[in-house]
Specification:
about 280 residues; 2,3-Dihydroxybiphenyl 1,2-Dioxygenase, domain 1; 8-stranded mixed beta sheet; metal ion binding; VOC_core; VOC family protein; metal-binding; Glyas_Fos-R_dOase_dom
Amino acid sequence: MGFHKKPTTFIGHVKVKVENLQRSIEFYQDVLGFNILEQTTSTVKLTTDGKTSFLSLEQPENVIPKQGRTTGLYHFAILLPDQSALANIVVHLVGKGVRFGSSDHLVSEALYLHDPDGNEIEIYRDRAPFEWNWNSDEVAMTVDPLDFENLLKYATPSKPWQGMPAETVMGHIHLHVSELKKTEEFYVKGLGMDVVNRFGGQALFLSYGKYHHHVGVNTWNGAGAPAPAKNSVGLESFTLIFDNEGARKQAITNLKRIDADVFEDNNNYITFDPSGNRIELAV
C-alpha cells in the first residue's frame, strides 16, 4: 500500500536489547518464525525474506532487566501482509501455548505478546485504507474486541503458519515519553510527521503519507518519566528511512532549527527525541 517503502518515509529497522541473546533467538525463531541473517556474540539481525533485516537484538554488557516507569519502548509492531497470515499465526500461537492479547483498532486487527524479557510486540494486519474513517486530518482508531470467529475464517489449514511471510515489514513503533508538547514539536517540526490522532492528553499518533501511524507516543508511564539505563533491556534504537539524501538533509536542518542534537558517525546520522529515544536517520 506504499506506506512502508519509498518515497514515503518509514521505519526500516528496530533494535531491542535483551538479557540473554540465545534465549531470545530461540523465541524469535521458534515462536515468531524469524530467520537469522547475521549474528555475532552479542547481536543478531533477523530476517523474513533472507535478504534484509527490519529487527535486530542486542545483549549489552552488564545488561540489567527491563526497568518500569521509564521512557522507551511501549511496543514495536510487525505488519503482516494479509488477514490469512494473521489468522494462521493465531492458530500457531495457540498451538504453542503462547499467551497473547488482541484488539480491533478499526484501521487494523492486532495481537499483543511479550518476548522473554518483557519487550512488547504487536503483530497486526491493516485493513484497506479505503476502510479507514478520516475526520479532516484525524483518523478514527479505537480499542475494540477482536472478532476471532470472523478472523479464523481466513486461516488456511492446508497451508499453516510456516514462519513470518517474506513480505512482512516493521509497521510502526510506539514509545513511552516523558511529556507531549516538546515531543510533538520534535516529530512534527523536526522529523516532518503529521499528527493523525490524539488520544486525550495522553497519547499522539504520527505518520507520513496519511498512514494511520508510523510512530505512537504516550505518557502512560507518568509525566516526567526518566530514561532507562543504557544497559537496560528495551529499545536501543529505531531507524527512519528517507526517500533521498535531500529529504534527510532537510530533516536534519529542521531538527537543528528546534535545537535538537544531530550527531554524525561515518555518514550515519543519529538524533534523540526529547525523552532520549534514539533515532537513526538513513536513506
